[in-house]
Each structure stands twice: as structure tokens, then as C-alpha cells.
Amino acid sequence: MNDHGAPAQQEAPEVPLPEQAESSGAEPVVAVGEDGVPAVVLGKEPKPDGEEGPAATEPEEKLEDADPDASAADDDDAYAARMEGLRSRTHETNVHGERARVFQAEELNYFAGEVSARPRHGPLGAAFITKLKKTFARTPGADLLCEALDLSPVQCYVGEPGEGRTTAAIAAAIAFLRNRGRAAAGNVRILASERGLAAIEAGAMPKDSAMILILGPDEPAPELSWLAPIAAELRPLGSVLIVVTATEPVGPGVLKSDCMVRHVPPAPEAVFSRHLSARLEESRTRQILKLPAVSRQVQRCASPRMAAALAADVLSEVQGGVPDDRLLARRDPAKDLEQAADELRGPELWQKSFLICSAVLHRQAAGTATREASRFATLHLAGTGNDGMRRSEWFTGPMSEWSKCVELAGEVSGDGMGRTVRLSHEELETWILQVVWQDHLGERDTLVKWLGPLGHHPRSPVRVKAAHAAARLACYDFDVISREVIQPWAGDGGYRPRMTAAWALEWLSEGRFARKARGLVRRWAREGNVQLRATAIAAYGTLLGANDPDEALNAMRDIVGGRIQRLDGRRDSSMDRAERELLSIVQQALLNVFRDGVEEKIVHELAEWTRLPHWRWRQAAARCLLRLAPRKGRDRGWPRLAELAVDQPSVHDDLVRLWCNALSREQGDEKAWDALHRWLVLAGALPDTSRARVASPGLDGLMDRLLAGIRADGPSLAASLDFHLRVWRFRDDRR
């Protein structure tokens, strides 16, 4: 199963390599006390005697690196539930009436209905740029900005936040580089906005790049006189700088006309159409846009982001088989909210339990919701004495009559799918939890106790729902939920609760609670508690890490090179097992971040690991390459790593370094040679009787350069390569 909740491929289990001689390089240590409890953080000394440290769990107790009952179908459903939950947090009316909205994403991007992360700083990868080009709605502001960069390499792009100014600035940077024959991938760089103007470091500007600095809404634009020396430094480098700001720069009007462009937001209809056209035919897009309900909702969009989010909703409904006349048919939720309030205030505990559980398990199996409602009611009655009713008498009559706010969707057709519970209005999913937490104080403890075991549920989609429910509740009481729900999941050591905690933190990683959620993950990544560190790595393997890959990769690098040992220096088999499981968790997190679009940075980071002094980093880089090598690309049918390398020389160099490391005698893994053989067969460099034609024409040129780079690594590796090539050709000739 994939840590990211995405489909997993069946892979042969890895056999741990034998211990290798320690190198002379310094080795980071995670020490643990005499009782096996992790006591210190990476690189820090133990606490003085008498000073208590954080509670920790012995690593030998439990640390699962994979789901014991992995299911690819379950992972598909879980991924869909995660993306749906992330989309729901951007709606303009998550709560209704007098209750103010309490959460909203700030940096969430949609590409044809898909949620995607944009790195907070660093170069933009090919995957992100490809998606943006497919969905970007042209605006006069972006065209003017591209033309202005020819006049001055420093431009202030002025516009209100939330109107698509950052997307337009990125599009202008891509067009500027394209007009000069340069690749955009890796050359469009987002500067660290949290540093403000200090992110522009004189003397450290890259060549042939387009840099974008996004200033906060309250941060003033730079003075025009300050831009002149920056422009003088950028001209000989062939680079440009775009400062995205909400305020105009201060300076003479003549200079301002040369160094400032105003953002012109694209029309909501244009944004909506572009996102739909990326997934649907043009004729189908026009047909949907002509629907009265859809047209009204599009016209109400106040920003490009709202139009993109609306397109995501429409695409979700179209793929779900909703008829055209019911697309975006959102009725007034007032009656539904009133009915839900009456049921929550009613005397029937069973009706109330079913409603609360259905709010958490919206769109999940009706059987699961019923069983969980029964468990909720049992917890509610615990310690208060039973009222004499048997559990079989709690829910009587047809399910359709248990709550007027819950509908049963689907039919019993004998295919094992069954029915699902759906709330009568989407807003009830958030509203019920808010009302229970804030107005029905007697249900708070029951809700917390009930959510805990739900994070261990065998089905991934149910755990996603538990994670998102906990995240929503954390918006009302972050400290209580993080301490009593999320942290127990994180410290359990099991795969399932660990991923539930990671998904909850992913949901909270944008908006008002982003600083707290990210701070919690950052602290756990430095903990002596092995289970909490594993959860931090799992969280970095979600969109939380894809948004800040530098921080995520630094934490993963520390984990891979670290050792777990007792303070007295003793080691046992549990230490070795915990290290292997942590390494496996890191590998899966890296693959997940790669899948989310942080591709070039992952390749470069793994190549850097091959240069580090300790064999653990080199071994991890080799194993990650073996899991990345089979991944197919999006366009040419090549392996994705090959697609990245063919147009980006820096990625090609990193890829050569990775293959040389994986094929080296130090690794001694024949699986690496098998992976290289599959690439050669795919490129047509070796015959293959199972294929009627070469699957990936054009890949042979890249493979020639790759083999040349491997031979140049040294005579030993060159001899091994020639030997394997002779064996492969001999074997194929005999078939």
C-alpha cells in the first residue's frame, strides 16, 4: 500500500543488505535510554539526570512500515477521499448562517480538478509547469509582463491576492524563457517569500533563470531605486526577477512605467473553461457552460481560484454520473440545518449517534456507518448505566427513516458494493461537527473516544474520513485534538494510525493552522520517539511535504543517516529492525512526494546522497532508484526518470550518478542490473521476443548517453556493464 493513499504496485519484498563497514564519516545518532525509549533528538546530547523528557514508546513494541492488508482498490478510494476532503476546505461557505468560516486553503492549486501543490520556494518542476500550461487562461497582464521583461530584467507585478497574479507571473516567466530557447523546468524559481526582500541575495543570482518573489499582502513593494542595482546584476546573467506585490513601488513615474505591470485577472468563464477543457472535449465544455445553474455559479466566482475550484466540483460530479440538469444544483441548506439541529437536540440517542457518525463517514458504506453509530452509542452509555434496551433494539425500522438528514445512495445488487450514506446537503458535513463540538458539550468526550479507534480502521477511505474529521475539529480546539486524537495516532507505531495522523496534518497544513501543524511535524521529526519521527516522515510524504520539499528532504536525510542505539551503547535486533522500518517509511515518502510533482528535486537529492560519506545514504538512494525506475511517464510512454533527463542536463547528470551508485559493487544488487536491462529493451537497444515493436522510440539516444556516463565512472563498473551486455545479448539470441 502506498503511504500517500494512492495505488500501490506489487513489489517483491526487499532483502536487507548485510551490514557494511562503517566509513570514517561522522554518523548521526538517535540514542535511546536503557529501557529502549528514545531519549535524545538527532545530533543533541541526552538530558541531564533528573530532567524528564517527552513520553516515548519503545521501538521494539511496534513500528509497521506497511499496511498488513494492503489493497490497491482501497488506496484508489482513499486517494479520492483525500482529494475531495482537501477541495472541501476551500469552499466559500464551509459553515452557514451566523457561524463564521473557520478554515480555508491559501496556497491550494487546481489543475483540471486535481489538487496540486506548488513548492513554497525553489525551482518549479516539469510536472507542475506542464499542468499549468494546460489550464492557464491567458490574461493581458501576463502578456504585458512578458514584454516588459525585455525592457527591464526586474519587474513589479501588482495585483490583489487571490486574483491569479502568481499564476500569471509564472506563466509570463515560462513564456519569457521559451522565447529565448530555454527550458522552463528547473529554471523558474520561487524565492523564499518568508524572507521578504532579503531572499534576493546579491552575487548569488543563477544564470538563465526566471525568479519570482511573492510578497505578503501587508509587505510594501521595494523602492524603484533599490531595483536598479539588481537589474544591472541580472542583465549579464540573462536572468529576470518578478516581484509579485499588492502595492505599487515607490519612485518616479518614469521609472515606474518601465518596472511595473498591473495584473488583469482573467474572466471566470475563461478559467472555468480552461480547466474543464483539460479533461473534457471542447464541445462538452461548451455544453456544460451553457447550463443555467452552471452559468450562474461561474458568474458568481469572485476570483480565478474560485472558478478553478468550481471546475473541480463540476468535473467531480460529471465523473460521478450526475445528470446535466442536476450539476451544481445546490439548494438552500437552511431547512437541512434546521432539521439536523432538531435531531441533535432530540431525546433519541440512537438517532443522534447515527447522524454524527454519518457526518464523519459521508459517502462511505452504510454498513460501516451503522456499526460505528452503534459503537458511538455504546461509548456514550459507558459509565452511565444501560437503559435496559438491548443493542439489537437501538436501531429499529428501515434505515431510511433513522434520520431525515441522511440519505441512502446506491442499490443492493448483490455485487458486494451495498449502499452508502450521504448527507442531505454537503454543508452538513462540517456544520454538524461544529455544532456538536461547540454547543453539545456532553458529546465532546464521546466524539474524541470514538474517533481514536476509527483511525485504526482496516479500510483506508474510512481512516481518511477520520483524519479529516479530526482536522475539522482541530479548527475549533487545536490543542485538545492534537493532544488527544492526532498524537495518540502518531505515537501508536502502527501503519494505519500513523497515516491517519499524517492525513490530518496534511489537511491542516494550509490556512489559519498551517503554522501550528507544520510546527508539530517539524518537532516530531527531531524527536527521540521513533514512532513520532516515523509519523513526521509520513506527513512529509503528503502534500504538506510537497509544498515545502526542502524541509521535508532535510528531515528524510537525517533519518536515513541516523542510528538508533541505547545510551549505554548496546545494540540489539530491535534497533536494526526499527532502522530498516524507518528507512522503508522514508523511501515511500520520497516516492509520494515525487508522485506529487516534486520530481527534479527528488532526483537531485538522491544523487547527493550517493556522495555522502556513510553507506546508509547510498543504499537508500539505490533502493529508491529501483522503485522509481519502472514508473511510466505521462506523454511519451518512457520511464518518467528518462522523460525528465532528456530535456534537462542537470537531471541527466544526477540520473547517471544514481545508476552508477545502484550498479556498484558496494550495493551488490542484481535487481539494479535487471532494471537497467528493462530500460534497454524499452529503448530497442536489446532484442525482446515478447515485443513486436519498440515501445518507446527516441529513448535509444538517451540510453546511449546514459551508458557512456556509466562507463566513464571507472574501469570496474565499465567491465561489469560490458559483461552484463554480453550476457543479455547471448540470452536473447538463444530464445
From TrEMBL:
Composition bias type Acidic residues, residue spans: 61-74
Chain intervals for the UniProt region annotation (Disordered): 1-74
UniProt cross-references to InterPro entries, sorted A to Z: ARM-like (IPR011989), ARM-type_fold (IPR016024)
Top-level lineage group: Bacteria
Descriptive protein name: Uncharacterized protein
Organism: Sphaerisporangium rhizosphaerae
Lineage per the UniProt record: Bacteria, Bacillati, Actinomycetota, Actinomycetes, Streptosporangiales
